[in-house]
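Q: I have 134 residues here and want to know how they pack in 3D. Can you give me a structure?
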Amino acid sequence: MVGPYAHLRPGSIVGPGAEVGNFAELKNARLGPGVKQHHVSYLGDADVGADTNVGAGTITANYDGSTKHRTTIGERVFLGVDTMLRAPVTLGDDSRTGAGAVVTRDVPAGKLAVGIPARIREPRDKLPQDEPHS
């Protein structure tokens, strides 16, 4: 599914069940099955694994002034709003980023990256007050 005002540039592949939302752009990027890329985001020179969620305003900064680099995002990754991924960088399966994170180094599988520049942390489990009430 591709939303209005989305821009798919050459070399881009949208996998089965993937969604590209309003004002989202792909350039030489591959979205795996079930990826959700919504709201004003840019993925250039990127490979995105299955069932990953791309938060609003996420950008892959793929150009360092002289060379373009790829970004590799694993499966089931959750990218928080306004995440910036400075290529080359790899995010492992089931990793996450916090809102506004600037990721400048690889994020291991299952870890959380937060801050500017992003620091790697253990993800927090749900707190008792986050549990549904019975």
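Q: Anything worth noting?
A: The chain has one domain: 7-122. The chain is about 0% helix and 35% strand.
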